[in-house]
Amino acid sequence: MPALKRTALSLAAAAAVTAATLATAPTASAAGYRCTTSSASVDNPAYNGPWPDNYDFDVSLCAMRSGGYIYAYATVTFDGPVSYVNQSDILDGGRFRLEIKKSVSGTDPVVRAAAYTGLEYRLEHGNTWGNGSWRTGTLTYKAGSGRYLADGAIQLDWNNDGRGYRSTNFSASPTV
After folding, report:
1. Full pLDDT tens readout for the chain, 176 residues
2. Whole-prediction pTM value?
């Protein structure tokens, strides 16, 4: 068989194997992440007018143990006021504080934490209905024995309220 035909046949066989592999690839949830989703509505304390001003949040906190490490991330989905779309003067800051905690009796100690910025921009530039979503990066911790979980809070600094960042907590992930 000439080399060209052999190469074409090999490429076709490789494409078939790749297509079959992709079709059976596990989803993120099947890969071991355990998640909890909770909701909160946050009012803009600097506005008392007649128009809607709340952000409604759904936050999924996810954690996974793999290869001696704990991995955690958060996904924020929001429904905001239409009047806030493309308004850069609603918030002075917005971030998500993600924590990996060791599950113990009593208060769970934080073993790793990070504040992920970028949330302010997404909130102020949602789609034309004021909706959108955003995901943190993945926080990693070299785990010892015991159980761990992901926990976190949205931290918003509203423009003109004079109070700095205020936190809204969400339900922690299941332990891993």
Report:
1. 444 443 333 434 444 433 333 333 333 443 699 999 999 999 988 888 888 889 999 999 999 999 999 999 999 999 998 888 888 888 999 999 999 999 999 999 999 999 999 999 999 888 888 899 999 999 999 999 999 999 999 999 999 888 999 999 999 999 99
2. 0.80
HEC letters along the chain = CCHHHHHHHHHHHHHHHHHHHHHCCCCCCCCCCEEEEEEEEEECCCCCCCCCCEEEEEEEEEEEEECCEEEEEEEEEEECCHHHCCCCCCEEEEEEEEEEEEECCCCCCEEEEEEEECHHHHHHCCCCCCEEEEECCCEEEECCCCEEEEEEEEEEEECCCCCCEEEEEECCCCCC
